[in-house]
Amino acid sequence: MAQEQLFIGLCDGELDSKKYCSSFLTNKVGGEPDWQPGITRQLPRCGRCSASLAHVVQVYCPLQGSPYHRNLNLFACCQPGCSEQSGSWTVFRSQCVEAPNQSSTLEVVVPSATDWCDSAEDWGAEVGGEDFRSGGDKEVQEQARDLQTKGSPAVCQMDVSSGLQQLSLVESKDIPVFRPFFISVLEESELSGEDDELGHAQELLREYEQREGVALGVPEESDGSGEMYEKTSARHADAVFSRFMKTISVCPQQIIRYCRHRKPLFISKMPSNNSHVVSVCSSCGEPRTFELQLMPALVYLLQRIDSNLAKKLEFGTVLVYTCTNSCWTAGSKFPVEEFCFVQPDPDHELFK
């Protein structure tokens, strides 16, 4: 299978519901999930303590050549000790066929709809890329978001009507909610060879070292061989963690790495029987493939907006595996549950 392009997700400002109309076409952190038309509202609970799960990330990720809209929604438990356990996470995959009369609407909202697809690379470079490199053109970003609210009334109206159809008598006031943020996207290749962004990444890494009281050993100057890094980091971490930190040092603020079919970036050593750890698709029985992972920088971004601010998520990285065939039953009202594997933050073991 051909190797797919790797995309990096970054925080791109707060999603103010009073100004912007969020829909299932929006890539975002937190808030409430925007279910596709016809999909029944889901209220998942923790497999460890049965508490209500908080919505963590929504990703719009249609597959090339597929007639379906496609979303992944990740949920996690905020109770102490739960979020670093795989059984306390849930990921749902939802799909619906693109209606013929939606084509013009989708052209309008394409900035947030196809960030993860080849067709959206230009937008990602102009808006998301500029924001990463030099703070971004705020006017361009505002115009892009205004297109979602002012230029796509059909989408907003569709969301309202579908939401009314999904009203539930299930009590939901105990569901924790995170502050919502837009997600912008870059190709990983755009992060290399830029002196200003490398300098910014090193500054963030130094801040992380000071905050956590650790020395990750990424040198400001090097001959390019990586030898200085390896010698320093080896005193503190195993080879897998060292490789993880070295890879993300170019852009430590990345919150998502997306690349369907490629290998994930592990933060710690995986079990030798990894093929048995990742279960097959519960709907069709086919194997699952890696699709995306949540990164450590997301932990600091997840801010509760409800009354209980003390409870928060803790994790190293969250790996998401989905059905290789992305199977879907036409007319289904329920999303397909996919597979999450959580690797805890290894700091408490590696930095003693």
In brief:
By secondary structure, the chain is of the alpha+beta class.
Polypeptide structure, described:
The chain has 352 residues and is of the alpha+beta class. It has one domain. Helix content is 28%, strand content 19%. The chain is built from eleven helices and eleven strands. It is globular, with a radius of gyration of 20 Å. About 25% of the residues have low confidence.
Write the layout of secondary structure elements.
Layout lengths: L6 E8 L13 E2 L24 E7 L7 E9 L12 E9 L5 H6 L1 H4 L7 H14 L3 H12 L3 H13 L15 E7 L7 H18 L14 H7 L5 H10 L7 E3 L15 H4 L10 E7 L2 H5 L15 E7 L12 E2 L1 E5 L3 H4 L2
Antiparallel strand pairs: 1-6, 1-7, 2-3, 2-6, 3-4, 4-5, 5-10, 7-8, 8-9, 9-11
Keywords:
352 residues, alpha+beta, 11 helices, 11 strands, 28% helix, eleven-stranded antiparallel beta sheet
**Mass-distribution shape:** globular
Strand order of the largest sheet: 10-5-4-3-2-6-1-7-8-9-11
Strand and helix order: EEEEEHHHHHEHHHEHEHEEEH
Give the fraction of residues assigned to helices. Answer: 25-40%
Helical stretch tally: 11
- On the 0 to 100 scale, the average pLDDT is 75
User: Number of DSSP strands?
Assistant: 11
Major sheet: 11 strands, antiparallel
* Rg measurement, Å: 20 Å
Domains (count): 1
Which assembly state applies to the chains in this document? single chain
Tell me the β content: 15-25%
Structural class: alpha+beta
